[in-house]
Automatic annotation (TrEMBL):
Belongs to the UPF0213 family. The keyword Hydrolase applies. GO terms for molecular function: endonuclease activity. Residues 1-76 form the GIY-YIG domain. Transmembrane segments: none annotated. Signal peptide: none annotated. This is Endonuclease. It holds the Pfam family GIY-YIG. Keywords: Endonuclease, Hydrolase, Nuclease.
Length: 93
């Protein structure tokens, strides 16, 4: 099962990624050389949102579209408690 996730940096920046194991990947970002270069030295990090989407293709499409959103729209996505929110699925249309 593939998931898309958002991580917040200490400077309030948002990083979007995809993985098959959100907790493992978040730990890698925090302490492993396997973490994204973008996040190096930007801690502490916090996992603020994740959503399971099924297959890799869908996850990567959603990641691409989330990365193109404004920060305000990403914040809306984070605040929506309904996992099947209209905003999320409208990104795949």
């Amino acid at each position: 099962m593939w998931s898309v996730y958002l991580i917040r940096t200490a400077r309030d920046q948002l990083y979007c990624g995809v993985t098959t194991d959100v907790n493992r990947r978040f730990e890698e970002h925090q302490s492993s050389p396997r973490g994204a270069k973008y996040l190096k030295g930007k801690g502490p990090l916090s996992l603020v949102w994740s959503h399971s989407v099924g297959d890799k293709r869908t996850a990567m499409q959603l990641e691409y579209r989330i990365k193109r959103l404004t920060k305000a729209r990403k914040e809306q996505l984070i605040l929506q408690s309904d996992k099947d929110s209209q905003l999320l699925w409208s990104l795949l249309d």
